[in-house]
Amino acid sequence: MVVAGATGVVGRTLLPLLRERGHHVTALVRRVDRLDCPTSVDDVAVADLLDPDGVRRELRRVAPDVVVDQTSGIGRTDLTDGQRRAARSRERASKNLVAASVAAGATRIIGQSTTAAYRPHGHDVLDEESPLWTDAPGCWGEAVRAQVAMEEAVLTCSDIEGVALRYGTLYGPGTQYAPGGAIHSRVCGSELPVVSDEVGLTSFTHVEDAAGAVLELLAGGEPGAYNVVDNEPAEATEWLPAYARMAGGPAPVSLTLEQARTQLDWLTVHQLTEQRGATNFRLRETLGWRPKWPSWREGFADLFGHWPG
Ligand SMILES: NC(=O)c1ccc[n+]([C@@H]2O[C@H](COP(=O)([O-])OP(=O)(O)OC[C@H]3O[C@@H](n4cnc5c(N)ncnc54)[C@H](OP(=O)(O)O)[C@@H]3O)[C@@H](O)[C@H]2O)c1
């Protein structure tokens, strides 16, 4: 099989798991020197996904049965102009990868998506049938539309089985929640408050569970979209103070919605006050998948060395 995005936060976690299970793994990378450990794979293919000829040539050479795309989607709190452009270019990258996978004779492609793209509504957690927020304001709308186009490239090609794994907010080693990451710095610098009068929900996904879901979907499971999240969608007023405590940071300050709107960027306010969680029911019921980290509570504790084992 081929893993694109092998140097990313989920790709790095996935490679050893695939090898442990006896898969023949080719890492598709832009630069070989970005691979942590070239011996963790059987083969390396070098191509930029934005170069259709290069991807096609490398995939034909490798002739994989399955192609896993772990190049990153949206789901971040800090989208810069460059990252928004990168999100848009993913549509092209995905189309190139799907076309090259079909030409190489692959039977399944598994892409990375996110539950952050759901339109917030009601107080419930959202399932895979919930609408994606394609008309969200400003740059978030752009990012969601790019994400939808990426999913469509993977899910609507009739010549290959397409799976979109919609991850929740990723945490664990190497993510923004790890010591030194962007969220860690914001929490420890008292830059991420709780908002007292409106409470958003976050569904978290440990990177090990993100990688574990790929293993489940390699051969089994109907094509389509699957939420890959833990069992406990968390209110911002709960997970943020708990995270700050475990990280050894100050307790978050509390703002009113009006104060938050004047002091924080739109996306952060959205996440803290109106974002909805997601349910992993489909993955649990159809494939018997169980997250290794069923709750962010244990996962955060493990991240900061407070979890036995
Ligand atoms: N759902 C979520 O919350 C979510 C999802 C994803 C990421 N994140 C966050 O984003 C941060 C970075 O994550 P990440 O390491 O996965 O993302 P990343 O740094 O953007 O890496 C994504 C992977 O895609 C590869 N890639 C990007 N464009 C490519 C192209 N045109 N052709 C071939 N390969 C390409 C990168 O290769 P190179 O090594 O060559 O750059 C890298 O392997 C983390 O803190 C993570 O928590 C969050």
TrEMBL record:
Task: State a GO cellular component annotated for this protein.
Answer: cytoplasm
Q: Known Gene3D superfamilies for this protein?
A: NAD(P)-binding Rossmann-like Domain
Chain positions covered by the region annotation Disordered:
73-92
Domain named NAD-dependent epimerase/dehydratase is located at 1-228
| Taxonomic superkingdom | Bacteria
* SUPFAM superfamilies (alphabetical): NAD(P)-binding Rossmann-fold domains
Sequence ranges of Basic and acidic residues compositional bias: 78-92
Listed PANTHER family: NAD(P)-BINDING DOMAIN-CONTAINING PROTEIN-RELATED (PTHR48079:SF6), PROTEIN YEEZ (PTHR48079)
What's the protein name? NAD(P)-dependent oxidoreductase
